[in-house]
What does this fold into?
Amino acid sequence: MIDLHGYGPLLLDGAWLTVKVALASVAVGLVFGLIGAIAKLSNSVIARGAATAYTAIVRGIPELLLLLIIFYGGTLLVQQIWRGLGSDSYVEIQPFVAGTFTLAFVFGAYATEVFRGAILSVPKGQIEAAYAMGMGQFTMFRRVMLPQVWRFALPGLGNLWLVLLKDTSLISVVNLNELMYNSRSAAGATREPFTFFVAAAVIYLGFTIVSMIVLQFSERRARRGVRLS
Amino acid sequence: MDLELMIDSIPMLLEGAGMTVQLVALALVVGMCLAIPLALARVSKYPALWMPVYGFIFIFRGTPLLVQIFIVYYGFGQSEAVRESFLWPFFKEAYWCAIFTFSLNTSAYTAELLRGAIQAVPHGEIEAARSLGMPRLLMLRRVVVPRAFRLALPAYGNEIILMLKGSALASTITLLDLTGVARVIVARTYAPYELFLMAALMYLALTLLIVRALKYAEWRLSPHLRPPLNEN
It folds into this structure.
């Protein structure tokens, strides 16, 4: 067994923050993704253009750079607005907020494509049938669209979640004390970088394995109404 | 926005972009050389072959690239044995550590793509090769690998773009790639908008270039799917 020199709890604290940041990002990111997909499928040229630009930009810019833009650029922006309002106190965007926003922004862009595909996969006849039965738009969406969009989107979203989980490590660069940051601290204090980075890797791998099991279970559950040929 | 600063920074950022391209290109070449044998081992029916490869792919895909690069750059030096071995001049350099990590990382992802593609090669073509009396290696070289490449090309394009984005992590181990140069200038001038946006534009340009090149490669590699040029 590897000796963590009493830094085990520090790593676990970091791991817990990693989970929190990942869950917060995925919650916000799903909203971004849904809005993006609806914009991409809308009739408005402006909405479609904006959504296309959004996905193209995120696809082409490194997550790390995006995080730096949002963290440093965002702080500067907030400060300028603050100054403009006549205050001269120092404000800074918290790393947690900047990190969550960045990861959600990235997740949302890729989720836009996933949702778009999933929405298009719902057979038109079913939607017509729902209307013919007198369902309102909202009821139709909740009863017919949503359960199927969920099923079609789940494998894609699962992959995005695994990517997001790993990308949380980037937030350590702007000093959020999540798993990666804490393993760096421990590595610095003990001068045993190998031990602590491998420990971090093992924890990330554990998260990946747990996620894969949960995803497999949810996919099976989402498929339970499908007749297998 | 300080336009002058943006324009002044272009030469330095371009130098950084050169480093980024170098890192990505080298990693992709080495990664591909590793990925082909890995993919072939992955589809083997012998557990002694596919199981270790499966583990390798799983570990590299299941942990963050940042952790991997830190293990190699900061971690390897912890062991006395590594520091005194002939490998130390290699692992001492951030540049080679980045190449090493990126190559292994991309080879894991590429091997998985190729595995999917190899399994998607139509069975009839393999049977045809066998019935022509091709030995196994010849069949792999002439039928399976080229076919798999064509099938994997669109997905491999995504992997190239992901590698380009991942290469920004080289800046965390002191390398002056595109992100690294931007960070250094920002630390000096405290002009995050200008520099990071310029860097972002350069990354977008590189991505666009890659997408275009891939479109062309796909077009070149699928003459059988194109409509005939003139039908008279």
